[in-house]
Design a protein that fits this description.
mainly alpha, 2 strands
Length: about 270
């Protein structure tokens, strides 16, 4: 069976427009370089620059270091959350286009733009889900902080969905708030506390937080199934990609069912605390 990366390329994905793919990122085998990437990921994540944090993590998991098993769950939650945020924005602009007939074209162009961005992150996320097998059997480490944002839908998204035209500055704010919310909800799901902000914050605040392999795998499978909807006929109309994500969901569930235990002796940078 062809690998996902090959199938994505054959489907016409433009890597340059969606960010770094793992097959093209440099390997970072040196311990010092890996530590720098881990620290950079923590700093950019803390600052709310999730796209840059994802790039740092992708470079990190493209190499070999004691950080890789900790970086994989973080990367999966982050890229899935970014995809969700952009999907939500696209859906609101689509709703707004139905109401604001005069501005419908501008709203639809925005929806297309955000679906393209969502597609890039969804495919990056899906491509790396096989890396769950690289995490030693036992619990899955959650070596990242609770993110910024609110679980409630931002008021600006509601305005967009109601057909109101907003300023360019408000559009940037809406994008930031939507992606923050997407990442926050993905982190809650990945930590075993879907939609429960307080519980997820408590879990991630523990010393060496982790989650069972089965629970984490189930969460990732849910994310894949949810993001497969981006490629349906009503949205991007790319059924081959929808099938790829659903296939990945099935494979993740099989991997998550593996049992066993292994001690994960990994270095944790102070920047990630």
């Amino acid at each position: 069976m062809p690998t996902l990366s090959v199938r994505i390329v054959s489907a016409g994905v433009l890597v340059a427009s969606t960010g770094l793919m793992s097959c093209s990122t440099p390997r970072t085998g040196a311990a010092g370089a890996a530590a720098d990437l881990w620290s950079a990921a923590a700093q950019t994540y803390s600052a709310g620059d999730y796209a840059k944090a994802a790039d740092n993590l992708e470079r990190l998991i493209g190499g070999e270091s004691p950080y890789v098993a900790r970086a994989i769950p973080w990367y999966l939650a982050l890229t899935s959350g970014m995809a969700r945020g952009y999907m939500d924005l696209a859906d609101r602009y689509t709703s707004g286009a139905r109401i604001n007939k005069a501005g419908a074209l501008a709203f639809r162009l925005k929806a297309t733009r955000y679906r393209t961005l969502a597609s890039g992150f969804a495919l990056r996320f899906a491509q790396q889900t096989d890396r769950l097998s690289d995490i030693p059997l036992g619990s899955v480490p959650l070596a990242f902080a609770f993110p910024k944002g609110s679980a409630g839908e931002p008021a600006l998204l509601s305005r967009i969905g109601s057909g109101f035209e907003i300023t360019p500055a408000e559009q940037e704010t809406a994008e930031t708030l939507a992606t923050q919310r997407g990442v926050l909800l993905a982190v809650c799901l990945a930590s075993g506390a879907p939609n429960d902000i307080a519980k997820s914050r408590e879990i991630l605040g523990r010393p060496s937080p982790s989650i069972s392999r089965a629970a984490f795998g189930n969460a990732i499978a849910q994310m894949l199934t949810s993001e497969a909807a981006l490629f349906t006929r009503e949205k991007l109309n790319e059924p081959d990609k929808a099938a790829i994500l659903q296939e990945r969901a099935d494979r993740v569930l099989v991997e998550a069912a593996r049992v066993g235990s292994a001690r994960i002796g990994l270095v944790v940078s102070p920047a990630a605390q």
